[in-house]
Design goal:
Elements (H helix, E strand, L loop, with lengths): L4 H17 L9 H33 L17 E12 L2 E11 L5 E2 L1 H6 L10 H11 L2 H12 L5 H28 L10 E12 L10 E14 L8 H4 L1 E11 L3 H15 L6 E6 L3 H10 L4 E4 L1 H15 L5 H15 L3 H14 L4 H13 L6 H6 L7 H15 L8 H15 L12
Parallel strand pairs: 4-7, 7-8
Antiparallel strand pairs: 1-2, 2-3, 4-5, 5-6
Bound molecules: zinc ion (ZN).
Zinc ion binds next to loops.
């Protein structure tokens, strides 16, 4: 944008004049105060221009004729009369903006505020764009910190509660989109579009503080998350280097819910469908031993290759070792080394047997060893690491673990956070969307 010298001169003289009235000589201020003064001046100008713009839009709507749009009204399509031009206020990136706009009524008694409708304005509330900024900030940091950021950066004063409302509004909109995606996929018929070749879904959970007593919650609720991804290679890190050859997770998309297993199932399906997992030539699901994970996977992705995350499987061996041997006993470590090698080679029966032998030997650790034997038996199809490695699959859950950290530790568990189920669910969705680089800036968030 460029302004003519005339305009700049006029604005400059205005700014100087106002400074003079406040006893300030702009040229004499330290540079940072000069910037701050100009910023606030231009912000005030921006607010005034916003009022002009919206009033012009209101006039245009008036000239265009305002008619009743109430469904089923016998006056629908008939002109309404302007009953008032009221001054209202909306908070914007320029601060609070006051402007006048028309209110209309038809003979039928129905009322309209065409400008509010056209622009998604709510008098007394935060306006478009700023609301999106607030939602984006609220997905990143606590609402208190978000409000402080906004005050610092934009000189816009909003309460933490306003940041919360915007973030929750974004999250609810995302939940609606997810629900629509789920419905559409359930109702869809005909051959599906081809999907990616190989898609991974890694599933895990993390506990989030919720208010006691809500929906039978006990103070903590598990956020259940899935990270969808594909494998890619890191390029441009030096030709032929190890890094070049090593496959890594790319195009990672996270989705989740604070809800129960059934709710997670729908999230898994809707997000997987959006990702193309249902149409992929191969879909591979990696998770730990949690029963809810595999229940839901079997329901929604029965065709998936199921993999028990390698580090959890090895962790289970160490659990046995700690129960059966002292920490510094080399026999325990030797046992793990042998059984881990068998696990790596896909010798499932050998692994189960090693645990059973230990269980039959009795003594400390017998119970843990017996449990481990059942665990490896139960997951026997998910620990065929020899086959998985041969097929070139990822067998670790690092991708989802880092996402759980980003979503749960990084936002849902920040100091002082305690969620209602509805609020927590919405912010969880906003946080996931923000991790993908999605932005609410262009959306009117108000329902
Ligand atoms: Zn009407």
């Amino acid at each position: 944008m460029e302004f003519t010298t005339d305009v700049i001169t006029q604005v400059w003289e205005q700014l100087q004049e106002q400074a003079r009235q406040q006893g300030i000589v702009l040229e004499d201020l330290p540079a940072s105060e000069q910037m701050s003064y100009l910023y606030r001046g231009l912000q005030a100008l921006g607010g005034a221009l916003t009022a002009r713009l919206w009033e012009a839009k209101d006039q245009a709507l008036h000239r265009g004729g305002v008619v009743c749009q109430q469904e089923g009204c016998d006056q629908a399509g008939r002109p309404m009369r302007r009953t008032a031009r009221r001054t209202v206020q909306v908070t914007t990136v320029f601060g609070k903006v006051k402007f006048r706009r028309g209110e209309y009524q038809g003979r039928c008694g129905h009322r309209r505020r065409p400008l509010d409708e056209a622009l998604g304005l709510r008098p007394g509330q935060v306006g478009p764009y700023l609301e999106g900024l607030l939602a984006e900030v609220g997905a990143q940091v606590s609402f208190e910190r978000g409000a402080r950021w906004l005050a610092r950066w934009f000189h816009v004063e909003v309460s933490p509660n306003t940041v919360r409302r915007a973030t929750v509004a974004w999250g609810k909109r995302l939940a609606q989109e997810e629900q629509a995606q789920y419905q559409a996929s359930v109702e869809r018929s005909g051959p599906p579009a081809p999907g990616p070749k190989r898609v991974y879904g890694a599933i895990d959970g993390g506990f989030v503080p919720v208010r006691k007593g809500e929906n039978g919650a006990e103070g903590w609720r598990e956020a259940k998350l899935v990270a969808w991804f594909q494998e890619g290679r890191r390029y441009g890190q030096g030709k032929g280097s190890q890094e070049d050859a090593k496959p890594r997770a790319v195009a990672v998309k996270v989705a989740g819910t604070l809800g129960a297993k059934e709710a997670f199932g729908k999230v898994l399906w809707a997000s997987g469908e959006a990702y193309g997992a249902d149409r992929a030539e191969e879909v591979i699901i990696v998770g730990d031993g949690a029963a809810w994970i595999w229940d839901v996977v079997t329901t929604y992705f029965p065709q998936a290759v199921e993999i028990l995350d390698w580090s959890h499987a090895v962790g289970r061996l160490h659990q046995v070792r700690r129960a059966a041997w002292r920490e510094d006993d080399p026999a325990g470590w030797a046992w793990v080394e042998v059984v881990e090698a068998a696990l790596w080679d896909g010798e499932v029966e050998g692994v189960v047997q090693a645990c059973e032998v230990l269980a039959q030997r009795g003594g400390t650790g017998a119970e843990e060893a017996a449990k481990a034997a059942r665990y490896f038996e139960r997951h026997s199809q998910r620990i065929r690491y020899d086959r998985f490695r041969e097929a070139g699959y990822f067998i670790g859950s690092g991708v989802i673990e880092s996402r759980v950290k980003q979503v749960v530790t990084g936002r849902m568990k920040v100091a002082g956070a305690q969620w209602t189920m509805a609020g927590g669910e919405a912010v969880l969705k906003a946080r996931c969307a923000w991790l993908h680089g999605d932005s609410p800036l262009r959306l009117p968030l108000a329902a």
